[in-house]
User: Fold this.
Amino acid sequence: MFELPLRSTTYVNKHRMRERQLRYRYINEHTKQYTAYERRSNREDLKRLKRRNVGYMTPPETSHGEEELSSDSEDEDDMKNDRRKESRRRHNKKRKSLRWTSLYRQDTEELEEGGNNAFGSTTPDPDTNQTDEESDRETADDNNDLEGEDGNFISGKDERKFFTIHHKPQQTYEVWFDPTTKLRTPLNKKIINFKDWSRVQNKTRSNMKEPLAQASHSLRASQKLIPHGLYLYDENNTSTYHKKPTIQDKHMETMITLLRHHISECNWAMSYRIFALLIRLPRIDIKSIWQYGVKILNQNKNPVQCLQFLEWMHSVFSSRKSFRLATTLQIDPVFRGASRTHTAQFTLTWLWDSLIYYSSKVTDEEEQDNKLEQLIEKLNEMILTPPFMEDGEIWFILAMCHMSRADHLSIRYLKQRESQGSHMRAIVYDKVIKEITQVIKYLKESKDRQFGDFVFPEDYIMRNLTQIELRVQEEEEEEEEDDDDDDEEEESEETETSADDKSRSFPLPTTTQEEQYEKLQPPQETRQEHMPFPQSHDVSSSSFQVEEENSFLQALDMPDYLEEGNLPQDNANYYTNRDSDDMEYSSD
Amino acid sequence: MSSTYIRGPVCGFDNCPSRLWRIIAGRRTCQYGHVMEGDIEFNNDDDAAIQQSQGVITKRLNLTTSQTGSFQTNLSLSQQNLLNSKQSKKLMKGQKATLLMIKCLQFILKRQVDYLIQRRKFPTQFEKIVKFIWLSFISKHNYHTRKMDRNDLSLNINITISVIYMAILQLGLPVYFCDLINWIASLDFPFYKASNIIPIKWNENLPNFYLLSLNGNNLLSLKTFTDTLFRFNSLTHITKFINTEINISGLVFKLITLTTLPLEFYFYTRHLVKIFCYKEDDYVIPIHSIINRAGSQHALLPETYIVLSFILTIRYIFLYDGMFTSTQIYSNEWMNALLQTPNLNEEDLSEFTINRKLTKLLNNNNHNNNSSNPMDWTEKETINYLNWMEEKFMPLEKQNHEDLGKLSMDERIIYRKLNDIIPLKSTELQLPQLDRHPLTFIEELQEKYLKLLDLIDNSQTTENNTNSTITTEKDGEKEFNERLNLICKLENKILSDLSNEFNVPIKRLKSDLSRFEKRISYIPH
Assistant:
């Protein structure tokens, strides 16, 4: 977990490799079992709920998650018969192949999993995952029966040989998300009881028996400790060094310990100095410690330094190379660097940070325009090259650039409305509309390339876009129609909103704007106006993008995912499509 | 055909002055039609394979100019390797390499001696004696034969240390193994990364195997030191010609200052050493030692004899204190005070103590309580360490990287940029400045003893207030146990201190101690 960020090209530590492999295998297995359990229990809950609610209207107190599920359950009923048949067929097939899988499973499974987590790009496979929970129950029992046969099937020596040859580095990476759980997971409110928990654990344990059979004594011991949250204390530090630590190793270790310690103590001056020193040491791998650097540099009052550093990272560690699993054995690809198919985290951080900085922190208008222009140019360039071309997040950032530009244009127009003539309004209007069409275009592109856990609230953005459009659109009519008094009121309120803008993002509709909106829009759509803005929903660490929307121009705190190990979990709450619920609330 | 020219290097073919280039049929051609050689490059992307399946093939030339203005092609890995292999250094082999290695060792030895004479104020005769010993080594070393015996001395940087140690013995200087280690750990003494010191030409010619053994990557442990020393002596037979008796009084005095014991212990130890080490050989480095691999060789070193007898002296003095006299000389409070390490002002540590701390950091033998944990450091301590890092450690690391031309031009520019972005001292996040007025060794020693006295005074005043209890027999037994406990603690503390000082695992030191006790029991009366 806390390996030294040294360039480890010189040696391959076999012990560490095996240990990591087993550890992540256990973790992956456990999450798999747990999600299976969760899905199962969800379905049972549904049945119970249905039985209870026959002939009644859904009570208004029912929570949002359950309502959503009840709507889903109808579809599920239709599907059930088909699925049962399919599962039976699959089960028979599985039985036949179980002998082989016991030997080969490790490889085939890991290939699938590794593909998912290394690049996050594989498409979800609904068929296999939906039947998982049913087949799992049966296979868990069958596994125990068949174990004896497996032993006779092939001798232990050959098996060991087989596994030593076929080491897959993907096995040493943890699976961070499961694409099938996307959007459908309700809030996790349930408490797991001990019986179920032990069942989940037992299953995992029985599945782990197989890889552990070849493991050494110390590995087995460490494996036993992991469920209890413990680690083996390594007196001679064999996991970090394959030999006696040298003078250099010792000093590096001390420096890294100091860095981590002082960051945890929020002693920024000290950690800056340590970081500056570490960067200058040739043996240190900057790609492994850039997160610390961003965290430290963000404490500076001048965030340009941090942006410069991230830009440097982006330009130096390009994503031209394709990531070769065969040669880069020991390194996780995800946070360290980039590849042909994978955008580097530091690039994304750089883009987000610079967007937020330029659109909110820079006060000078001209400079802001220039910087945003530069950023858009940069993004337009990036979009032409492979890893960024296929990354929805990059497209989304581009869309947001245009959106913030439209926002600034409209607000500036509002401020200077009096001094400018009607022809200016037309020009500004054209500009804003142009930007808005760009935003919509890029959002569509982004949606086409959506995968992984990157989701954005489209409706919210669209609503804000209409707000922006309205700002420019209606002023003329306002001026013509309304009296002078109204105008003054409006101005004062609007200046307020524009002042708010700097801190809040897109302005929430003020009363006057609402009225205008109601006047203009056809009556059916007025309902939308009362819809509460989705500010109150739970924002977890994973839905960083959603949070981004809420506090779009707000000062950016370090996104959690930048910190090592704090990765988006698959059971996190995604932004769910709330519109239907909100409609119901409003009708009540 | 595009007629756009790209500015590049001077053509130079038949004194052609053209700097402008264009591409004709995939060849870089100058204004006057000279074709540049070896600059064709196709991009072998994966995309090409995809496009091939669709029937369309495009091949582009990637032309960019590097910082120096010359064309820079995105060479593929294999091409780069080819280029590198042409420039690869000429490695020496066999006898020549061994000769060169001995040359390098001599060069390093010269630097080490210079350091000792200039910085550590060694007498100037030291150089002559080192020369004498080194000559005896060269004359005996059979570099012309290929066969290596198991007991042979392998060429290593540790040899220079043995030469210096033997010279120290001849002059009878009060410098011991622990001092040498401290100097090595402080990186002042040319030992760590010593391959940087030798001339670059030699460095290029020396095989990697020898370069690694010149690096001095590990801190010298007592075991490897004795091992090389004994091998060295058995090869050169130098012990016949020079003095090999160690300077006992210096070592005993050093041990006492390290542990801040009162000075009467000096006499106790001197007296007991005479009894314990009754054989004459005990003060002398053994001439022909049996080279065994069991690992207890360092017990044969006179230094270890004296350290062990010093520990035993402390034990016996405390145990028999108060048995033959009515009052105890060393009270329990006094021992308690000794157990607490006096906290010195970290700003004004002498160089000696700082070096000791570094040694402690590098010493990986004791994991439990004694090895210094960077998490427990105070702010000043950390700043001191970081300053040391910047001044001493970083230049050595960088030198190794830059001088040998491992970095290309582009890489150098890249790293310079990074250094500009993140300067060593930031304008906003600033650390408090330390004004260091380092004490001399003697001043620090004074302070240590004064602080110890203060501690003793404090504990005695608190003791006087509670000293009104009546002593019974039970109390006497309890008191005795308490005292035993204290003695054990004190001995453990001193043991772990000394194990750090001499870079010996504490387990080994303890086992040596028990063996030494057994030996004493056979002393003829």
User: Anything to note?
Assistant: Chain A touches chain B at residues 235, 244-248, 250-251, 254-255, 257-258, 261-262, 268-270, 272-277, 279-283, 286, 293, 296-297, 299-302, 305, 308-309, 312, 316, 322, 340, 386 (CB under 8 Å).
